[in-house]
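hey
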C-alpha cells in the first residue's frame, strides 16, 4: 500500500465516497472563502493594541509593546502572521484528530468584540484581554475532554438544531451582499439596495456573482473557486488597463509582512501578570468571552454539519467533542501569540458544498495557510468582495435546512423562526441560538407540554437570560469593569 493509499484510508475516503481531487478543491475553496481573515483580523485587532478607534490612528503612529516601539503598519503585519499561525495550529488538530472538513481561524465578530467592546469600550488592557482568551481556551480544553461541551450542545431543542443552518445561511448572505455593496446602509430603513450604476465596486461584484451563479447552476466543479479567482483577476485587468481607478475595485496596494511577532507574546505574558491586580474584572472578561465563543462555535458546527449530512437523526454531530477540541487548542495557542479567539468558520460550508467530507479538506486549508505565510502580499491582492461571493452562494444553498422544520408546530415555528432571523439581524450566531433556546421552553409550557422540556433545557435558557442581563448591565454602565 502506497503513501497515497495509506493517507486515503486514514481519512476514510471510501466511507465518504470522496477522492483527493474533490477534497483538494474543497480545501482550496474553503481557504479562498476565509482568506480575507488574514487581512481583516489585523485591521480589527491593531486598534486594540493602540488603544484608539481606527479613525484616530495614522499608519505611521507608534505604540510601545514589551519595551519596543512599533508603527501601526508593523503591528498589522505582526497580526497577519499570527493570524495565519493560529489558524494552522487549530486546523492541524481538526484534520488529524477530528477528521472533519472544517477550517478554523480567529473569529470574525469575536475579534470585533475583543477590540471594540472589551478593550476600547470597557477599557480592559489588550494584554489582559489576551490572558482572558487564553484562560477561556484552557477551560474549553478541559470541558471538551470530559464531554461537557457535547452535553450542552445536545441540549439544544430540535427546532433550533435544524434552524441553525438556515440562520447561518441568511447571515452569510447578508454579510456577503453588504461587503459587495449590493446592500448598503440607509437611515430610514437601515438598509437598501446599492446603486450598481454609480458604484463600480458593486457593479463588478454583481458581475462576478452572476458569473459564479451560472457556473454553479451548470454544475461546474470548483465553481466558487473559479468565480472568486476570475473576479479578482478581472478586477486587476480592468484596473491595470486604466478603465478603473486604482483602489476602486482592487486593493490600493500590496502590503508586506513582519514575521517577528514575539512582542505580542511578551504582551500576553504581561497580561498574565495583570490578573492578580483585579481578579474579579478578569473573571468577568473570561465569562464574557467564554459565553459568546461557546455558542458561536456550537452554532457554526451544527449548521455546517447539517449541510454536509453529518448530523444524526436527533440533529446531533457524532463525536462533536473532536472538532470542539480543535477550536479550544487553537484559541489557547492563538492567545499566547497575540490573537483573539479561534473558532470554526462558517465559510467551511463553501468547501463542504464542493464535496469536502474528510479531514483532508481541512489539511488542504492548513497547507494553503502555510503557503500564505510568504505570500501575504499576494493574499492582500484579492479584493475582499471577491471572496464574499462565496458567502452569498453558500448562504442561499444553506436555506435548504428550513424543509426539516415543522412549521405547523408553534414551538418549532417560533423557536426556529427566531433562530433564523435574529442571527443576521444582530450579526451574531450566538444571539440567534439564544433566541431559539430561550423561547422553546416558554412556548412549550404555554402549550401545556412542559414535560417535553428537559431540566437541562430550562437551565440553558436561564443561563442565557443571566448572560444578557449582565451584558446589558455592563453596556448601560450599571456594572463597571
Amino acid at each position: 500500500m502506497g503513501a497515497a493509499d495509506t493517507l486515503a484510508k486514514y481519512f476514510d475516503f471510501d466511507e465518504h465516497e470522496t477522492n483527493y481531487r474533490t477534497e483538494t478543491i474543497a480545501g482550496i475553496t474553503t481557504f479562498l472563502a476565509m482568506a480575507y481573515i488574514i487581512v481583516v483580523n489585523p485591521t480589527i485587532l491593531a486598534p486594540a493594541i493602540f488603544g484608539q478607534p481606527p479613525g484616530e490612528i495614522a499608519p505611521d503612529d507608534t505604540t510601545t509593546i514589551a519595551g519596543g516601539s512599533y508603527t501601526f503598519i508593523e503591528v498589522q503585519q505582526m497580526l497577519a502572521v499570527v493570524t495565519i499561525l493560529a489558524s494552522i495550529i487549530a486546523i492541524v488538530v481538526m484534520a488529524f484528530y477530528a477528521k472533519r472538513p472544517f477550517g478554523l481561524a480567529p473569529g470574525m465578530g469575536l475579534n470585533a468584540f475583543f477590540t471594540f467592546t472589551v478593550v476600547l469600550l470597557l477599557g480592559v488592557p489588550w494584554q489582559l484581554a489576551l490572558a482572558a482568551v487564553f484562560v477561556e481556551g484552557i477551560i474549553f480544553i478541559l470541558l471538551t475532554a470530559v464531554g461537557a461541551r457535547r452535553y450542552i450542545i445536545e441540549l439544544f431543542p430540535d427546532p433550533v438544531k435544524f434552524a441553525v443552518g438556515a440562520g447561518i445561511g441568511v447571515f452569510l448572505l447578508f454579510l456577503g451582499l453588504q461587503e459587495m455593496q449590493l446592500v448598503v446602509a440607509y437611515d430610514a430603513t437601515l438598509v437598501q439596495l446599492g446603486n450598481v450604476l454609480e458604484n463600480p465596486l458593486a457593479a463588478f461584484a454583481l458581475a462576478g456573482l452572476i458569473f459564479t451563479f451560472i457556473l454553479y447552476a451548470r454544475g461546474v466543479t470548483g465553481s466558487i473557486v473559479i468565480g472568486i479567482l476570475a473576479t479578482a483577476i478581472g478586477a486587476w485587468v480592468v484596473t491595470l488597463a486604466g478603465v478603473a481607478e486604482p483602489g476602486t475595485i482592487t486593493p490600493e496596494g500590496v502590503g508586506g509582512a513582519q514575521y517577528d511577532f514575539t512582542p505580542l507574546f511578551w504582551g500576553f505574558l504581561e497580561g498574565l501578570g495583570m490578573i492578580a491586580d483585579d481578579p474579579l474584572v478578569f473573571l468577568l472578561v473570561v465569562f464574557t468571552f467564554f459565553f459568546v465563543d461557546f455558542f458561536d462555535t456550537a452554532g457554526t458546527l451544527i449548521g455546517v454539519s447539517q449541510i454536509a449530512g453529518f448530523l444524526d437523526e436527533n440533529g446531533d454531530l457524532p463525536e462533536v467533542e473532536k472538532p470542539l477540541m480543535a477550536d479550544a487548542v487553537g484559541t489557547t495557542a492563538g492567545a499566547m501569540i497575540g490573537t483573539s479567539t479561534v473558532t470554526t468558520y462558517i465559510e467551511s460550508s463553501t468547501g463542504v458544498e464542493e464535496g469536502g467530507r474528510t479531514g483532508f479538506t481541512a489539511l488542504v486549508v492548513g497547507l494553503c495557510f502555510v503557503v500564505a505565510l510568504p505570500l501575504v502580499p499576494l493574499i492582500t491582492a484579492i479584493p475582499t468582495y471577491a471572496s464574499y461571493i462565496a458567502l452569498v452562494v453558500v448562504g442561499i444553498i444553506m436555506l435548504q435546512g428550513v424543509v426539516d422544520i415543522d412549521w405547523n408546530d408553534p414551538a418549532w415555528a417560533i423557536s426556529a423562526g427566531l433562530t433564523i432571523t435574529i442571527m443576521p439581524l444582530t450579526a451574531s450566531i450566538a444571539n440567534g441560538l439564544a433566541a431559539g433556546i430561550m423561547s422553546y421552553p416558554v412556548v412549550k409550557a404555554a402549550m401545556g407540554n412542559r414535560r417535553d422540556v428537559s431540566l437541562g433545557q430550562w437551565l440553558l435558557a436561564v443561563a442565557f437570560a443571566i448572560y444578557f442581563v449582565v451584558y446589558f448591565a455592563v453596556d448601560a454602565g450599571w456594572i463597571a469593569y
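The radius of gyration is 22 Å. Residues 156 and 477 are 32 Å apart (CA to CA).
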